[in-house]
Amino acid sequence: MAEIDRLKVLDPLKVLAGAALGAAVGIAAGAAARGGAEGSAGTGQAGATPPPAPAPSAQERAAAAAGGAAAYAIAQSAATELARRTCRPRHDLAVVLGSGWQEAVAGLGEDPVDLPADELPGFARTTVAGHTGVVRSVTVDGRNVLLLLGRAHLYEGHTPSVVAHPVRTAIAAGVGTVVLTNAAGGIRRDYAVGQPVLIADHLNLTGASPLAGAPPPADMPSRFVDLSSAWDPKLRALAREAEPSLAEGVYAGLLGPQYETPAEIALLRTLGADLVGMSTVIEAIAARHLGAALLGIALVTNAAAGVLEAPLDHAEVLAAGKAAAPALARLLAAVVERALATV
Ligand code: HPA
User: Which domains, and CATH codes, for the chain?
Assistant: First the structure.
């Protein structure tokens, strides 16, 4: 437990003070019942992992969805379970793999340990094609890296707390650098399908925030988070070092799941958006709230509505990811290696 201290376990007395907190106590007890023993660093091997804990209870899922103090408690529980199952007491860096990105990590790292995400407390079951719902732990240059293959989206009906939960778990597990990847529509006419673009800034147009609602516990940072340099300039420079041709753009995060109208894309362009998608911004806010450094890479999977005559569909998004996978794999490996050197 000592190494997993970025999110401190809630003081039980404080926990009892708030309304959401009966649930948090239940979560902590549930996680403890599932077994909190942690193994030694870097020894996890596929096939040699501890047995899965019982699936999270409905109460735990509900508490995680509600947000507030319970959301942080269940992230801590998930981090503890992750450490136990992977036999890796902490992780250094996490990568969230969005639509089209899953194949890009097939060869990333060594000694992979795969866990079905929904066996970890608070993780949602994925309902989206192209999102496998696997949490993979690998080692890269002797460091532990968490690969989150798939994510939860607001448009699936998940609350912002559930969407933010994997990132909060990663940070509770020791992660100080979070790489968020996604598939996006290209609003700029000079973006090509299959092109990765660094996220320089974002517009959160979802109408939601992982920090809305009950305030974080007193031992967490203030919810009034400064986002003026949310997308870490140093990490972006490192990524451009790895791939000098990388463009940068502003990502507009919308609720979805429908694609946009041409009029909406015209509006987004006037607002300063270069890319449009249905993810990332909620996780980004949660990561910055907890002080993690953020890098974002969007894969342009299609020209946004109205940019070309062509209609949009999800199969096209996945196909673009498949075609770009070898180039994305090289880019991610180089970026992860460089980013690890800074943590
Ligand atoms: N719009 C919104 N989300 C997306 C798009 C798009 O054009 N392409 C991939 N994700």
Answer: 89-340 (3.40.50.1580)
